[in-house]
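Re: beginner question about structure tokens

> Can someone show what the tokenized structure looks like for a real chain? I only ever see the sequence side.

Sure, here's an example I had lying around. Input first:
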Amino acid sequence: MQHDKIDIPAVLRRLPMLQEVSAEQIGHLANTTREKRLQKGEMLFQKGDPTKGFFVVVFGQIKLAFSSAQGNEKVVDILGPQQTFGEAVMFMDRPYPVFAQALCDTLLLHVSRNAVFELLECDASFARHMLAGLSMRLHALVQDVESLSLRSSAQRLIGYLLQQCGDVELTAGSIECDLPTSKQVIASRLNLTPETFSRILHDLTGAGLITVHGRHIEIHDLRRLRAYEP
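And the corresponding structure tokens:
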């Protein structure tokens, strides 16, 4: 795992919800922010643990998930660099409703709840920026629920593959990407069984739309893939 010294104020300043916050406010948050390093497979917190702030992913990946009554694991989110988590339960003063586990060697920043609340009490502009950040997260959550509820299994997986391509124009033709984590974890994130996930990849391969090499995916025609209907 990397052990270079982290410029905490610079990391915080790049977060969407803190980009317009003053240098003084960033400094106040940074003073009580601590690094947390996890090895692959290590737990950050368990469901039911108390919240003492929120987390920022500097590098690596964090899986948020819970276990169903049947003992199956349901992945709620997969978080990568410059993404945050834990803000909502921090404000609600509730225990974590999920567990968090590192999918690979990961470096996090833990931003203190006390520091956030002190700024909220004395600076209305900081409160507005935090609200804007939470609103963006809520909007993404609504879109996620809509996608899982209204789109077919194949459409969900295709949408995920296209998301991994970033901002590439659909006219770009072929492109290659790498799945950020295991197929089993991604399948759970998309509310698919591993068998359904594999079957859809097989169908897309048979249709000449993609080629799969482990986690490496070659997409032969972005436009055709997006328009594919099984």
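Each token stands for a local structural state, so reading them left to right follows the chain. The chain has nine helices and eleven strands.
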